Amino acid sequence: TLPITVRSLSEAIGMKTGELSKRLLKETSQLYGNNSPVDFETAALIAVEKNIELIVKRQKTAEELLIEDFERLTREVDSEKLRPRPPVVTIMGHVDHGKTSLLDKIRRSNVAAGEVGGITQVIRAWSVTHKIEDPETGEKVIERPITFLDTPGHEAFTKMRARGANVTDIAVIVVAATDGVMPQTEEAVAHARAADVRIIVAINKVDAPNANVDRTRRQLYNLELLPDDMGGDIQFVETSALTGQGIDDLLNAILIEAEINLADDLQADPDRPAFGTCLEAYMTSDEGVMATVLVQQGTLKLGDIVLCGANFGRVRSMQNDLGLSIEEAGPSTPVLITGLGGVPNADDPFYAVDELTTAAKIAEAREKKDREASLNRFTAVKDIDMLSAA
Ligand code: GDP
Ligand code: MG
C-alpha cells in the first residue's frame, strides 16, 4: 500500500483538501478525511485531470543502501591486475535437442580414460581443458580451459541478469536438425540476447537419418542468427552428441569466440578476495549447507569467511567438479563448498570478506531487506506533455 493520503495528494497536485474530498466522493462514493488513504489508481486519475502524472518512486531503505555500498566497494577491481580467465558457457535450447548429451560428451571426451569410470557428477558445472593447435608446429599443445554450466534454466538466467550478475559469457544454442527451430529455441535465443551474451549455434543430431541441416539453418537465419558469409558474425557448428562428430569444432568455436569477441570481458584479478554467484545450494544432514558457487573474481580459499545472500560462514571444505578436495579456486571455477550457516538462493552473490562481523552485518541487512516490504513513495510529475516527449 502506498502512503498517499488526501493531504499529501492535495499538496502534490495543488488542489484544496475540501475540493479533493468531494472529487474523491464522486469517484468512489466514499467519505474522505484529510488523513484518509487514497489508492494509487484513483489518485493518479484525479492528478491526470490536473495535467499531473503520479509516479511511484521506490525509496531505498537503509539496509539496501548498506548492501549497495558494500557490494560496490567489494566489487571494485584493480584493472592493472587483470589477467585472462576462462569463458563460462551455458548450453541452451529446446527440450530433448541434446543439451545434456552434448555436455556429457564434452565432459567424457575431456576426462582422462582412467577417470571416466569415476565420473560422479557432484556439481552441475565443470571445467574442461581443450587442446588447440600450436600455429608454429601444428601440434595440439596449447591448453585452454572452458567452464560449462549445466542449464541454470531460463528463469535463473534472466534473474541473474536482472541483478547484474551475469554468470555466462557465451550461450551455445542447441538445435536438433531433426526437429529444427522450436518454441524453446526461440526463447533461448531471446534470453541470450537479453542477457547480452555471445551466441554460438550448435546444430545437433546431424547423425540422425531424418536430420535436415539446411532447413534448420534457414530457420535460424530467420531468427537473424547469421554466419559471416551471410553478413553476420555467429558461428555455426554441426554436432552429434551420439557419435562425437563436431565436438572438437564446438570447443574450438568457443575459444575463437572468447578470443575474438570477448577478450576484454574475460579478465579477472586472481590475487584478491573472491566474489561470484551461487549456482545452487541445499541442506544435507551430515555436511550441513552445500553450495555450488562460481568464482568470478579473485581466489576463494579454504577457511575464507564468505557471505552468500543472507548467509555466512567459513569455507570448511571445498570440492572441484570431479569431487576432489581443493584448497583454492580461481576465476571462472565452479566449486562446491560447505560452511555456510544457511541455504542461500540460487542466484545470490557471494563475497569473501575480512571480518565475520562485516559478513554478519550485511547478512542481517539482506535478511531484513527480504523480509520488509519495500517502502514506496509517490511523486507528482507536473506537465505530462514534457514527460511523454522525453
Ligand atoms: P536435452 O533435453 O536437451 O538435455 O536432451 P538430451 O541430451 O536429454 O537428449 C534427448 C534425446 O536425444 C536422448 O534420447 C538422446 O540420446 C538423444 N540425442 C541427443 N543428442 C543426439 C545426437 O546428436 N544424435 C542422436 N541421434 N540423438 C541424440
Ligand atoms: Mg537435459
From TrEMBL:
Family per record: Belongs to the TRAFAC class translation factor GTPase superfamily. Classic translation factor GTPase family. IF-2 subfamily.
Molecular functions (GO terms): translation initiation factor activity
Keywords: Cytoplasm, GTP-binding, Initiation factor, Nucleotide-binding, Protein biosynthesis
Residues the entry annotates as binding GTP: 93-100, 150-154, 204-207
Name this polypeptide is given: Translation initiation factor IF-2
Species name: Gemmata palustris
Annotated Tr-type G domain residues: 84-262
Location(s), subcellular: Cytoplasm
From-to range in the entire protein, with total length: 154 to 543 of 759
Function (record text): One of the essential components for the initiation of protein synthesis. Protects formylmethionyl-tRNA from spontaneous hydrolysis and promotes its binding to the 30S ribosomal subunits. Also involved in the hydrolysis of GTP during the formation of the 70S ribosomal complex.
Originating gene: infB
Keyword Nucleotide-binding (UniProt): yes
